[in-house]
Amino acid sequence: MIxxxxxxxxxxxxxxxxxxxxxxxxxxxxxxxxxxxxxxxxPKSHGTFLDAFRDGLRERGYVEGRDVTIEARWAESDYxxxxxxxxxxxxxxxxxxxxxxxxxxxxxxEATRTIPIVVALAGDVVxxxxxxxxxxxxxxxxxxxxxxxxxNAKRVEMLKEALPRLKRVAVLMNDANAANLVTFDTTTRMxxxxxxxxxxxxxxxxxxxxxxxxxxxxxxxxxxxxxxxxLFVAQATQLAALAQRRRLPSVGFREYADAGxxxxxxxxxxxxxxxxxxxxDRIFKGGxxxxxxxxxxxxxxxVVNLRTARALRLAIQPRVLHRADRILE
Length: 329
Prior knowledge:
The chain has 329 residues and is of the alpha/beta class. Helix content is 46%, strand content 19%. The chain contains 13 helices and twelve strands. Strand 1, helix 2 and strand 2 form a beta-alpha-beta unit. The N terminus is likely disordered.
């Protein structure tokens, strides 16, 4: 009886080893990995970005349901829920946590110091204290990051080039997002350089938008700069409609112009999320997050929405049109 049990165990061990060897020989992972996704918004707004991450995994040979599974948790733009959702993923003992934005990255990092964390995209991760440096992040977090202050400074410059007569500009930011707050000084310095006065306008939920645009009107702002924030990306159509209704020229992220904003300049989100899959692959193959240098996005796009320009009866300067990657007519 004992001999049969030993033989059975030996068979199981041998079979497992042969299966792992066979999978590795065919370019398949030696085990099935479980990814916990901590989404700051909803599948409606960010589901296509998560699909881009899935595409990246497929390009690297992972088959969902066989080599990898994704446990998704969505905060529905309520950042106060992120800590509990991150804790839920930790209790599931996932092999890796994927998240996005500074609020999601911070919640994941506070929930675990051991489970690897990959950030699909977050702004200014050094200034917000998420990593020690881009070259050697340290700890358990790595991924894709962009220079958020410089990006928004570029938007201010673009707005001035497009509409040189503007003088007073609102800056819409989410005070629940540390990356938004640390960026304002850089935006203000660039605004002064090109001849703008700036007015800080805060919003941390969609219910704040009407009030925020009312503040812009009372402050006699002539245009608005809209920061990258997962909430704002999720509500790009509503924000663009409010800007048009208030007759405010506006500049924001790429998708903001697609949703009806006047100007867009920013990271190609699907490309960044696809690149994040490479970090997951390296971690599954034994890489340590703290040793994997964070990457910068590979693509930035400039979008001009001439339909919105016509609705606002604005003439965009030709040099801005010449530099645009896309013009929406």
